[in-house]
Amino acid sequence: MVVGLVLAGGYATRLRPTSLSTPKHLIPLANKPVIGYVLEDLAAAGAEEVHVIVGPHNGDAIREYVGDGSRFGLTARYIVQEKPMGIAHAVSLAEKHISEDFIAYLGDNLIQGGASRYLSRAKGHDAFLLLKEVEDPSRFGVAVLDSDGKLTRLVEKPREPPSKLALMGVYFLTPAFFDYTKRLKPSWRGEYEITDALDLMMRDGRSVGYAIHEGWWLDVGKKDDVLAANAVILDENARREVRGAVENSRLEGRVLIEEGAVVRNSVVRGPAVIGRGSTIDDSLIGPYTSIGDDCVIRRSAVEYSVLMEGCAVEGVERIEESIIGRHARIIASGQRSIKLHVSDYSIVEI
Question: Residue limits of the Glucose-1-phosphate adenylyltransferase/Bifunctional protein GlmU-like C-terminal hexapeptide domain (predicted)?
Answer without folding.
Answer: 240-302
